[in-house]
Amino acid sequence: MNIESFNRTSEIVETPSQYNKTQKRVNVSVLKQRLLEEKKKEKVKRTIILSSVIVSLGALTMLTY
What we know:
The protein is mainly alpha-helical and 65 residues long. It contains 2 helices and no strands.
């Protein structure tokens, strides 16, 4: 084991206690809204990818006949 790894972990343990004093409260509704927006974006991406695959398969089918 390295002594450096011990030093890094000790620094990590010290820093959260320092930040806890200055942290503000988190608004849950804002976090829920962000989560919903991310899910909506992912759904749009999936829809675009799926539709492009279907259209390309249709185009290849039309070209082969």
